[in-house]
Amino acid sequence: TLPGHATMLSGLLPPENGVRNNVGFSFDGQTHPSIPALLRQHGYATGAAVSSYVLRSETGLGALFDYYEDSTDPTPGIAAVHYRRSGDKTAVFAREWIAKHASEPFFFFFHIYEPHLPYNPPEPFKSQYGATYDAEVATSDAIVGAFLEDLKQLGVYDRAVVIVTSDHGEGLGDHGEQQHSILLYREAIHVPLLLRLPDSFGAGRTVATPAQLSDILPTITALVGVETPKQVSG
User: What global pTM score does this model have?
Assistant: First the structure.
């Protein structure tokens, strides 16, 4: 999770950005480029709200943003690395911040932890699918859908660049791994990457060429007319 998000935000792969695991590593924003730091230099407000302890501010990610909301509730009997909060609660912080900056250029990073073990979906998805990965996917869909509706209500959706992606997939036992982190089969590394451009420019287009998370930074800099740092490998 942490290496994946460091790659998204920096345009650098883990051997380049120095973040190789969730524990024992931090991102150095003074040494490496990042989307929020680049955009802040060009007058953008930058904010983030995350749903996992793994992405807490102390990993170095918090220092990249003007605003970084990472509060999670400790759970008795569970290691801190597994602390989380539901995406709908994180969305409240996201909406409040975006509402305050809707009239100016801004970059916001909205992170949810669903779908992820332990599977504990809310209703009606638990009744429909049980405590399953599918139920967590349905929950994710509802959270993201509501967030996009918030953007529309705030009047920013039509002029926004919206990127939807994931840091990793899930093994689900296909090759002996129920979750992720050890094996590199397609189910773990082939993730969605959806790009929505202002006024629906290019709607419906599919790019067949393989892309990777490190391509997000240079895509954003190209779209907003900011020079891409030379060390970026995406």
Answer: 0.93
